[in-house]
Write a structure and sequence with these properties.
The complex is a heterodimer of chains A (about 130) and B (about 190). Chain A is mainly α and about 130 residues long. Chain A contains five helices and two strands, in the order H-H-H-E-E-H-H. A two-stranded antiparallel ribbon of chain A has the order 1-2. In chain A, a hairpin with a 3-residue loop joins strand 1 and strand 2. Chain B is α+β, with helices and mostly antiparallel strands and about 190 residues long. Chain B has two domains: about 35 residues; about 160 residues, Calycin beta-barrel core domain (Lipocalin, Beta Barrel), CATH 2.40.128. In chain B, strand 8 and strand 9 form a beta hairpin. About 5% of the residues of chain B have low confidence. Classes of the chains: A mainly alpha (about 130), B alpha+beta (about 190). At the A-B interface, helix 1, helix 2 and helix 3 of A face strand 4, strand 10 and strand 11 of B.
Chain lengths: ~130, ~190
């Protein structure tokens, strides 16, 4: 996890988002325990109450369950649930902006696909269209 | 005899005036000696000025917390004794609330009530008012109101328990969105 925090949200929300990203990336799998509050607090230099708030948020969203005395564990079906939510969020919030940029630049599906395969920015020959 | 009839009432009236004056002066002195309860509680809180360290335990309970890295709390009296600043930080981090997770709380007496304002990174500022136990060893702050949004929840309750001059306990309760509380308990010893 990244150790830097931004000012856009409380730290506990950013911590929640990082755990979600780790689940989506497959770093944390269903049934896995969340890293202990103690370790996260020490590693990322945050108040243990802040870590607990981030984890409790995940519990409240039904993504994580608390096993008393053992810690918090990622629920079965969490990745699917998150993927659905994140896809909807991307299509509703980010895609319109990305689509507008694609239209503005006149990028073709072939160029986008090639760029995705290269994992880099497309090189448009011939300058402006 | 005629003389005595005139002088005696004058002397008695003078004595009564002096007695009343002394009573008023005594009352005023007593008022100064015995400060209002809020000021007494604030003075007790100010006695916590200094550096404190200790472990945190949480509710909902989390494993492996007891041997965790200690939390560091700094308290200092400021504004010529009119306010107390309380800062929480992870032990070993620089005191830089712009970069690290360092919530700040201010204590002061307002309209005869010991009050705190907690400056939270959730972007809000809850205000709480104190009640002190009969033996003066526990000061509890209950939520009154809040400036800023509640989208991310807010700090809701705080309690300070005085054990001795080098040992006190703090309990902080945060209300998550949807009014679900999470609780932290700090067992703090005075540090250098």
């Amino acid at each position: 996890m990244d150790r830097e925090w931004n000012d856009s949200q409380p730290i506990y929300r950013q911590l929640r988002d990082r755990v979600v990203a780790m689940i989506l990336d497959g770093v944390l799998k269903e049934g896995d325990p969340l890293p202990s509050v103690r370790n996260v607090a020490a590693e990322y230099r945050v108040n243990p109450l802040t870590v607990l708030k981030g984890y409790q948020q995940l519990v409240d969203e039904g993504l994580v369950e608390t096993k008393r005395g053992l810690g918090m564990f990622i629920n079965t079906g969490t990745r699917k649930l998150l993927l659905q939510g994140e896809r909807q969020k991307f299509l509703a919030e980010e895609w319109p902006r990305v689509h507008a940029t694609i239209q503005r630049l006149g990028l073709t599906p072939e160029e986008l696909e090639a760029a995705a395969k290269r994992g880099s920015k497309p090189k448009v020959k011939g300058g402006e269209r | 005899m005629k003389y005595l009839r005139f002088v005696l009432p004058v002397v008695l009236m003078s004595l009564a005036t002096v007695a009343f004056a002394q009573h008023d002066a005594h009352k005023a002195t007593n008022d100064q000696v015995a400060p209002p309860e809020a000021q007494k509680s604030f003075d007790a809180m100010k006695s916590l000025a200094g550096n404190w360290e200790g472990p945190a335990t949480l509710d909902p309970p989390q494993p492996e917390m007891s041997d965790g890295k200690p939390l560091h709390i700094t308290m200092r009296v400021t504004s010529r004794g009119n306010a107390l600043v309380h800062e929480m930080q992870e032990a070993g981090t620089p005191l830089d609330a712009t970069k690290y997770d360092h919530p700040v709380t201010m204590f002061y007496v307002d309209s005869g009530r010991l009050t705190l304002i907690h400056y939270c990174d959730a972007g809000n500022r809850p205000r709480m008012v104190a009640t002190t136990s009969a033996d003066g060893k526990r000061v509890e702050f209950d939520f009154v109101d809040l400036a800023g949004g509640t989208e991310y929840g807010h700090m809701h309750h705080a309690a300070f328990t005085f054990i001795d001059v080098n040992h006190h306990i703090e309990d902080w309760t945060y209300m998550m969105p949807g009014d679900k509380p999470v609780h932290a308990h700090f067992d703090l010893k005075r540090a250098q």
